Amino acid sequence: MTRRGSYAKGIAKREEILTVALDLVARQGFRRTSIKDIADAVGLTQAGLLHYFDSKDDLWVEVLRRRDEIDNTTEWDAADPAELLAAIVRHNAEVPGLVQMFVNLSAAAATDSEHPAHEYFRERYASSRRNLAADFRVMQEDGRLRPDVDVEQLTSVLLAISDGMQIQWLYDPSRDMAEHVELVAQLAIARASTATAPS
């Protein structure tokens, strides 16, 4: 019984750490949030905090996973996958610290297959491409997307625009990330009037 109670407490503490870390990074920024900041906020030493994770980078990856879980359970006001992606990107502008974390870790993980975030990003891109492409196929069947558009390529391009604009936005916050995602989608999505217009 003691072991089970201790295990439950460990899970609860880990959840608290992730919640606090996500909040601190979102508010303070990725570079301004230290392991010490998080440890202090949850009443642990730095060594005590890292007892719950394999490494500092593993903690950051788990924070990104937590952010994804929240995004996946959010009710976004979006009529199609491109609008959904634009809505998420628009939301990201409100949490610049998480954008900083995403950009930093994705660059590090892309160039190092041993990086703790490498598998997270590989799986995330595969899952995003699979889900968005499936939704775009439904749109093609409904006549809301041009039939000559390759949905796999469209999905990859939209993800590239989304991630690339986040980098540009970190340099120049006046850039509207979501607007650029929407622009590319508009080139591919068939409007009812044009879809039925005589050639």
Task: Please summarize what this structure is.
Residues 11-71 form the HTH tetR-type domain. By secondary structure, the protein is mostly helical.
Helix count?
10
Total DSSP E strands: 0
What characteristic shape results from the CA principal axes? elongated
Ranges where pLDDT stays below 50 over 5 or more residues in a row are 192-199
Q: Please identify which CATH superfamily of the largest domain we are dealing with.
A: Tetracycline Repressor, domain 2
Tally of domains? 2
How much of the sequence lies in strands comes to under 5%
Keywords: DNA-binding, Repressor, Transcription, Transcription regulation
Pfam families: TetR_C_6 (PF13977), TetR_N (PF00440)
DNA-binding region: 34-53
Protein name: TetR/AcrR family transcriptional regulator
